[in-house]
Amino acid sequence: VMSRGGEIYVLDMGKPISILELAKNMIKLYGLEPEKDIKITYSGVRQGEKFAEELINSDEKLIPTDFPSIFVTRNKSKENREEIQNLL
To answer: What are the Polysaccharide biosynthesis protein CapD-like domain coordinates in residue numbering (predicted)?
Structure first.
C-alpha cells in the first residue's frame, strides 16, 4: 500500500509515439501494407482536442516511489511551507 491519503500518482508511460506511426504498425502487424492495403484517413483536429497532455504543472514536481514507473506529485509551494514550518 502506497497511499497515505490525498496523493496523486503519475505513471511513467515512456516516450510519446505518433498516432500515425501506431496506425502503420498495427496495419503491418496484420501482414498488410499501409496506404496500399488499408488507407489511413486523417479526420483533423476536433474542437477541444489536445495535441499533448500535461501530466503535471510548473508548481508540481514528481517524487519517485518504491516502484520505478510510479511517481507521486508534490506541490512545490506546499513543500516550501513544510520546510519553513520545520524551521520554526
So the answer is: 2-73
In angstroms, what CA-CA distances link 18 with 45, 52, 57, 71, 87?
14, 11, 23, 24, 48
Tell me what pLDDT residue 5 has.
79
The answer to whether residues 88 and 81 touch, using CB atoms and an 8 Å cutoff, is no
* Distance in angstroms (rounded) separating the CA atoms of residues 23 and 74: 36
pLDDT in tens, 57-81: 888 899 999 999 999 998 877 666 6
The rounded Cα 60 to chain-centroid distance in angstroms is 14
Q: Which residues contact 8 (CB under 8 A, 6 or more apart)?
A: 72, 73
